[in-house]
Amino acid sequence: MKAIVVGAGISGLIASKELSSLGANVYLIEEHKKIGLPTHCGGLVAPNFWQKLGIPKKKNLVLNEYSGISFSDGHHTFTLRTRKPFLFAISRILLDQYVGDLAEKKGTKILAGERIKKVFLYKGGVKALSSSGNVFESDVAFIADGLFGQISNKIFPKKGKSLLLASQAVFRHSLEPSFPLVLLRKDFSEDFFAYIAPLNDEFARVGVASAKPIASLVIKKLVKAYNLKQVEPSKHWGIWIGGPTSKVSFYDKLFLLGDAAGFTKATTGGGIVFGSILSRLLSKYVASSNEAEKKLAKERVNYLKKNLEFMLIIRKTLNFFGPSFYYPLLNKIANLRGIEKVVETLDYDFLFDTSLFS
Ligand SMILES: Cc1cc2nc3c(=O)[nH]c(=O)nc-3n(C[C@H](O)[C@H](O)[C@H](O)COP(=O)(O)OP(=O)(O)OC[C@H]3O[C@@H](n4cnc5c(N)ncnc54)[C@H](O)[C@@H]3O)c2cc1C
Fold first, then answer.
1. CB count, 10 Å around CB of 334?
2. Distance from the CA of 34 to the center of ligand 1, in angstroms?
3. What's the confidence (pLDDT) of residue 339?
4. In a domain, 287, yes or no
5. Does residue 348 carry a pLDDT above 80?
6. What is the mean predicted confidence (pLDDT) over 209-223?
7. Chain-centre distance of CA 308, in angstroms?
8. Residues lining ligand 1, judged by CB closer than 6 Å?
9. Whether 324 contacts 336, CB under 8 Å
10. The CATH number of the domain where 134 resides is what?
11. How far apart, in Å, are the Cα atoms of 33 and each of 111, 289, 342?
């Protein structure tokens, strides 16, 4: 089987690695010259993300391990501590390059610096045309061109109030490096939050997402309040909190992956884990010859969607009440006896199951 994957972000990379492992002949096409760059991601993942992505552990990808999390409304700050790390800050650049190497080892051919401008179905399969005039023919195509990808946005447009403007940069800080600080303030973001995520005791990723273009103002306020010093220019991108697409597969020949399919958590904007799991499942669905395995993969995609839809309900509820309502509630929960044990055992990626369990 011949497969083309458009976009070498984490979703396209994981799909390429999985498809190649299952014996497909894979071409991964990326418009940028280098895998992993440019990056705009916060890189926060649960410690068990290795298993979810299906990759062997590699220590140097983890920049910081958090044993707690702090929340602030600008007036009060409280911290939920855990005995063992419950959240990692990873290097997205190194992660993407690592998965790229794994995919190449399995046989994926990576074509970097090639932009796909059109993908269309024909009787024999799928064709992709690149800006430089190359034509790629294959049996199936996976579109992993990200949040602003032009090919996927024609199929599943990401616009309106659910598309938040996100900005992030690295700053020098003087905070406690063991906890990320989440700022829940209506004047910072009505629909999301701002964060300071220390990478070590010197540098931190600082960012904010909001439907309103107020990032520079928020970052200015954070700089003043927390004595931060910017060490790189801000990167501007987006976070989608509108939930997953209703359809990821078209005629079993064309598939949407990752951000292109809206597979980001509406609660936190995280997309690394859900995007990667979707890639693994759809690769299995397409390349496996075992009918039972295919059926299971399809069922699991629906299960992922159910979880993402549940997070969308949580996000809508939080946004309806606003931080001034739910911040005190969070504070109360943080003070419950034994809460750290619950936090340690929760799976934040699967909040639907977690809530039932809780
Ligand atoms: C500020 C910010 C902070 C975030 N923090 C976190 C976090 O802490 N944890 C988390 O899990 N997620 C986080 N996310 C979300 C996460 O970054 C995304 O969900 C994830 O990057 C999606 O991966 P992807 O492979 O689907 O898309 P992308 O990583 O966007 O990759 C898409 C790729 O496709 C390529 N491409 C696009 N169009 C074409 C074309 N026509 N031809 C060829 N190539 C093309 C692009 O160059 C790019 O390499 C954050 C996002 C932002 C903006």
1. 18
2. 14
3. 83
4. yes
5. no
6. 93
7. 12
8. 6-12, 29-32, 40-45, 115-116, 144-147, 149, 151, 166, 168, 207, 237, 239, 258-260, 264, 269-273, 275
9. no
10. 3.50.50.60
11. 9, 35, 44
- Single pTM value for the model: 0.96
Judge whether 306 lies within some domain. Answer: yes
* CB within 8 Å of 173: residues ≥ 6 apart: 196, 198, 202, 203, 204, 206, 226, 227, 228
Instruction: Look at residue 357 and tell me whether its pLDDT is greater than 60.
Output: no
| Pocket mutation for ligand 1, best pick of 5, 31, 192, 206 (most atoms within 8 Å of C-beta) | 31
The CA 150 to ligand 1 mean position distance, Å, reads 13
Q: How many domains does the chain have?
A: 1
Q: How far is the CA of 233 from the centre of ligand 1 (A)?
A: 19
Q: CA geometry: angle at 40 spanning 266 and 217, to 5°? A: 80
Q: What is the residue with the minimal CA distance to atom 51 of ligand 1?
A: 41
Residue 198 lies in a domain: no
Q: What range defines the domain where residue 127 resides?
A: 2-38+93-159+245-320
Of 152 and 325, the structure prediction assigns the larger pLDDT to 152
What's the whole-number mean pLDDT along residues 257-284? 96
In a domain, 337, yes or no: no
Residue type, 146: G
What are the pLDDT digits (tens) for 163-184? Answer: 999 999 999 999 999 999 999 9
Pocket test residue of 4, 41, 116 for ligand 1, highest count of atoms within 8 A of CB: 41
